[in-house]
Amino acid sequence: IGSPGQTLYHHPDGTPPYTWQLGDPNVIAQLTSIPTVADFRRRDIAAGGQGAPLATAFHNALFRDPQENRVVLNIGGIANITVLPADETEAVIGFDTGPGNALLDAYAFQQQQLRIDKQGAWAALGQADRALLEAMLADPYFAKPIPKSTGRDYFNLNWLSQHTQGLSLRHEDVQATLCQLTVTSIAQAVLLYSPQRLLVCGGGVHNPLLMNGLAQHLPDCVVESTMAASLDPDLVEAVCFAWLAQRRLDGQPGNLPSVTGARQAVVLGGIYV
Question: Which CATH superfamily, name and number, covers 2-51+255-272?
Fold first, then answer.
């Protein structure tokens, strides 16, 4: 079993740097009697890296194509991209672009008691507010140079309230604006690399407002689910950590220093039997 855990806090730039995930691999191994690999991020951080994103090595192994430049986009709570140049001599690049579903889900729950805004139905009732969008996009994270990573501990409802304070907007308009924040921040990052194809995975692939918005912002790029590359978009993250677990068992590195900023490639994770 490969268990990435559920990230509560992620501060790779702290003093000292740290990352904290829920999910005790001792308990998993004990309850299942199956060897469990976990705690993937801290070794990369110990080597001077961000500890994220870790899916890039897997994306590189599975989705790289010598015929076209590709970007793999995971829209989870936080959105992250992996840039896969067709030229194998060019380095793979990957980073967190900013919020994916985290703010959308948190605001939908706060205002509507919805676990998720399914297919963006509530956001579709609103109109994005340009001034609010521009204010949120002015956050320093979006202009921060790579390597970089972030988390829900930064992009959360407290962060949102700092931008909405004093504004008289309908709740659905705020939700529509959050959709545009996710789309625009992703598109701005993707456009830096001019891919021919954007392969999308994660929960956000089921939100037509996000997918259609990306297609509109990236007219020269094919935007499609990873299903087009024969992998269910809901399973990419799970298969990724199964792959990383096997890398650990084989004693093979699981990070890409060009992505995380680590000083060297290192074997990730601990084994619990």
Answer: ATPase, nucleotide binding domain (3.30.420.40)
